[in-house]
User: Which sequence fits this backbone?
């Protein structure tokens, strides 16, 4: 994610040929064979769910947390995404379009979060440390206060 | 199958409870359940869709009572019983019968490592014509298959727009029943939240659902 923020060419590859771009950084494998990366902007917020089971991009995010596999999240993410996001501390305005991605096939979705403001001088490595798992599922934003799990 | 696993749009399931600093496994047995499920796949007796279908057939009351990995174990045991890889007597005693089936060559730790990392692509490199194209209006068919399906109930009969064509993939409905892969196009279909949920939904929101060609009709 940090690479995409700092390298426009990489970002382009990540959004258009996600599998190859992710493989460039050494990630890939089971449950990440067919990746799709969707970009958050000030006007678009993406949220990923698997309403039928627990589909999740293992090679890039690890195994899913219990809440992602739970009935409350799976049932409500599609009908009440704004309510779910509120429970994660994210209040979205009416000027923001919410796009929910239900992983019903073998495509695995990953959210490219927005780069936080005030990070213009940060290096890719410093930025990578801010990126959280939740931000890549779409239930959180990256801020300069967050401490990421890995880029 | 219109089972309880098809949760999209249900209400009254309670708040989402996220745990801070959650471990990958809460109990050692969960890690074993995960590894065991992967290892048994090495026999090549079933496929991912068959495993999903087995988990979907857990009785509704048990499905909600069980934890996630309990469902994995129960489904795995059912598959093993069906394929005579284990007998009820062996399950009862916890000890293998001398004559029980063995995988040859046996699974080694080295090979097992690959089972949890190496991808198993569901895409198929075959020429199949796409019935729909980006921007086209489509309707998710109103069908109620009794077997395995990935056509979510909340979208059936609803009208959406083809957002993108993901290419050709095997078809889970037939693959789960070992009736062939029936490769066909999978599309990302955009449904407005209002189309799915009515006036209570925000007019600018939408849900993108991956759908196989067989799930769609022209609208």
Assistant:
């Amino acid at each position: 994610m940090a690479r995409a923020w700092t390298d426009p060419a990489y970002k382009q590859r990540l959004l258009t040929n996600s599998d190859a771009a992710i493989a460039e950084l050494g990630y890939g494998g089971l449950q990440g064979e067919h990746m799709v990366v969707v970009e958050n902007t000030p006007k678009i917020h993406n949220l990923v769910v698997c309403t039928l089971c627990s589909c999740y991009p293992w090679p890039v995010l690890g195994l899913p947390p219990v809440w992602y596999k739970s009935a409350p999240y799976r049932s409500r993410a599609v009908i009440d995404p704004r309510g779910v996001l509120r429970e994660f501390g994210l209040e979205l305005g009416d000027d923001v379009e919410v796009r929910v991605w239900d992983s019903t096939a073998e495509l695995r979705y990953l959210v490219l979060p927005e780069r936080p403001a005030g990070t213009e001088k940060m290096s890719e490595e410093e930025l990578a440390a801010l990126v959280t798992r939740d931000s890549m599922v779409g239930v959180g934003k990256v801020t300069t206060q967050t401490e990421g799990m890995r880029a | 199958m219109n089972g309880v696993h098809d949760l999209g749009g249900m209400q009254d399931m309670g708040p989402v409870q996220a745990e801070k600093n959650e471990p990958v496994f809460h109990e050692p047995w969960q890690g074993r359940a995960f590894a065991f499920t992967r290892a048994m796949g090495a026999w090549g007796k079933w496929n991912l869709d068959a495993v999903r279908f087995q988990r979907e057939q857990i009785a509704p009351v048990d499905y909600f009572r069980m934890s996630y990995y309990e469902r994995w174990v129960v489904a795995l045991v059912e598959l093993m019983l069906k394929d005579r890889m284990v007998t009820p007597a062996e399950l009862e005693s916890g000890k293998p019968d001398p004559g029980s089936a063995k995988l040859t060559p046996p699974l080694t730790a080295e090979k097992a490592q690959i089972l949890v990392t190496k991808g198993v692509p569901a895409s198929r490199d075959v020429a199949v014509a796409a019935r729909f194209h980006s921007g086209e209006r489509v309707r998710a068919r109103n069908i109620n298959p009794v077997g395995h399906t990935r056509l979510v109930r909340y979208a059936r009969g609803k009208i959406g727009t083809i957002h993108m064509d993901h290419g050709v993939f095997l078809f889970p409905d037939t693959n789960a029943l070992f009736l062939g892969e029936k490769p066909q196009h999978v599309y990302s279909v955009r449904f407005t939240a209002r189309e799915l949920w009515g006036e209570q939904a925000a007019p600018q929101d939408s849900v993108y659902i991956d759908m196989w060609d067989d799930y769609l009709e022209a609208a």
Chain B is about 30% helix and 15% strand.
